[in-house]
Amino acid sequence: MGSRIASVVVPLIFTLPLMAGAAEFDFEAVITKARERAEAPYKAPPQVPKALRDLAYQDYQGIRFKPESSLWQDEESLFNVMMVPPGLFYQHPVRMNVINENGAQPVVFEKSQFTYPNGEVERLVPADLGYAGFKLTFPFDGPDVLNQFLVFAGASYFRAVGKDNNFGISGRGVAVNTGLPSGEEFPSFVEFWLQRPAAEDTSMTFYGLLDGPSLAGAYRFTVTPGEETTLKVESALFPRQAVELLGLAPLTSMFYYGENTLAPHGEWRPEVHDSDGLLIHNGVSGEWLWRPLRAPEALSIDYFSTENVRGFGLIQRDADFDTYMDLEARYDSRPSAWIEPEGDWGTGQVVLVQLPTPDETNDNIVAFWRPDGKVSPEQSLHFTYTAKFGGADVADETLGRVVDTYLGDGMRIGGGAEQGAVRVIVDFTGGPLDELTADAPVVSSVSGLEGTEVLENSVQYVEPLKRWRVSILARPAENRSLALRAYLGQHDETLSETWNYELPPRSGVLGVLREP
């Protein structure tokens, strides 16, 4: 969790040449494999032995790859590859290959590449076990330091960080029926091909073959470490059967509680989360929309309609240590993730799935883009995008942005005198707001949705914090959610993103305590 990592750029381009001598392998070969798999009945990958699947967490963690066994360790490449052992969460091996001057060659598993917590665990590992995935390293802190910045392991999950981040949010190859009552499906990467970079290369290309009951897919990634880690991904998906809810460029994160929710009973830390909001940039309207996250009492799914979406992501905006006060988890340095589509993706929705969670150990937040229309076996889907991992400004937004959302009972001193109402405080800063004087004629545009009544709203400059604050008193309709939108403007100019918020009934703000 404490490994620092650098920015990665993954351009996925069909015409990018391979190294000399490796012309017999290219992205088309992976696409062909994916298409052929989709045309045949699905076969689940073979599992590793049950004893390894049932390992205790500490025993699995005690299996360590030896850094001196890393791929390209003895060469001049800036990139090294460390292997992930199967077991516990990683229940099937993944085929690994290297593309070099001799073409695509398999990477053979060697038991001696790992150290083991004890002889009993070592005895359980077969000599032909295989690998569960891989980690990429880059010398951010000097030529002799292997900084991990990208990990592919477990289903279609991957994690990446910018140079100054700790691991947190995850990406995925694809999401299938996430949040639906029918149950979520987790396709897996079953094979990778790693293209050996030249000594001077600061980018690296690799390919992945994905398979699952409903679809198969081919992926090409090119990664460039730096202040931000960016993955440019080109994907070709081939459905085996109709998919009710297909999620492209999915991101998975954790939100336990924050300033806009009540802390669970007994918690001393001010906030606990890997991300604190969903940011969307709509292409046609140009609107930037911010939705603060929450851990709901029951499954919650929101659909945000988009046309030619220009970006979306899960952002960790609050990067101050005193917001979390956690020396171990260091939520203040968790990365934000931003997806930038290439080309026009047409009409669809950015989907936000929020799940209840009893603690911070569960990833309970998922965001992805869903295309309009049915996904059927008669079609293939091709999408290209860039995933960037880094600081809170990873989206390069130019408008003023929301930095805090606070809630309180509208029948308390300092809150108001309206039964059943909620006092909401929203603070904005950045962009054109920072150029204004404290007496500038800034106005707030606030509207209630789903029957919410806006009783009052005002905007003022907060001199101690150098922010603009919108104060709202609103009353939700009976037994319905509090639903609000707000943004700042001056004359005919929009100065900020649009804050979009939903608070379900019995959330605890109006005197009903949240369950611990």
Automatic annotation (TrEMBL):
SUPFAM superfamilies: E set domains, Galactose mutarotase-like. One of its GO terms (biological process) is beta-glucan biosynthetic process. Pathway: Glycan metabolism; osmoregulated periplasmic glucan (OPG) biosynthesis. One of its GO terms (cellular component) is outer membrane-bounded periplasmic space. It is found in: Periplasm. InterPro entries: Gal_mutarotase_sf_dom, GH-type_carb-bd, Glucan_biosyn_MdoG/MdoD, Glucan_biosyn_MdoG_C, Ig-like_fold, Ig_E-set. Keywords: Periplasm. GO terms for molecular function: carbohydrate binding; catalytic activity. Residues 25-502 form the Glucan biosynthesis periplasmic MdoG C-terminal domain. Belongs to the OpgD/OpgG family. This is Glucan biosynthesis periplasmic MdoG C-terminal domain-containing protein. It comes from marine sediment metagenome.
